[in-house]
Amino acid sequence: MQRTILFAKTYGILVVTVLLFVVLALTTEGFFTDRNMRNILDQQSGVLIAACFMTMAIIAGNFDISVGAVYVATPLVALLVENATGSIALGILAGLGAGAVMGAINGIAVTRLKVNSFIATLATSFVFFGTGYLVSDRSIMRPETDGWRDLARTRIFELTSATWIAIAVVILASVLLTRTRFGRNVYATGANREAARLAGVATDRVQMITFVLLAGAAALAGILGSSRAISAQPSDDFSFIFAVLTAVIVGGTSIAGGAGAIWRTVTAVFFLAFLSNGFNLHQIDPIWQRLIEGFVILIAVSIDAWSQRRSG
Question: What is the average pLDDT value for the chain, to the nearest integer?
């Protein structure tokens, strides 16, 4: 019984995703085509980039609700600099730098001011959303240079540059979490922060780094999104953070911290993407999609809570 539970927790999302893929490929016209698969990869690139580092932050024991605000605000900063200088490189650096600063603000609030991460990042969400409105003067911003659209749209071996960047980020984040001392410290910090601190782990620094990396990833995702849309606009839209969190939770990362894997988060991103794509191809009302996604999240969280009680 224990082995079955462990197998289901470890590989359940992979099995379900493969089954869903096979069912849709056999029953849905237009699903298993080169064009549709490439579109799914391109559309999910931003979520993949941010979800990898959200996995890391949650494993370390923290939530970051401000990811959606960083995703919205940083491309506005990037375009402001690009418009002023005519330099795409400076615009990208400004956007990524703004993301790193936002992540550092979150880290300071959690590690120095000792504010609960959920509350702290919920508060900074509104600060960062407001920053986006100020930077853009409440208007849509567009790039001055034609090359901005190429950041996400350039095709290499039939895949967009956004897809290749997402693949590179997934590999980098996986190596960082599973093959480095920092990754081991992330797990130790999330599993038992006090025990990790007594063992010599600089837990505050670990948490700070995860916040900065996550915000930087969200900034990169936002910049690629603005390249794809050839514009950026201020908003109070929390949909991006919901997509990221859903993937991480459905992927089996423990909301209590200390357990999780990036490959499962990546698998969950595609499970949710296949589900959404299947609904769209079958022209099913989006309301049903929302209901089913809600039940999937509830089931995933319930399984995590049950397994925590069993292990405790």
Answer: 91
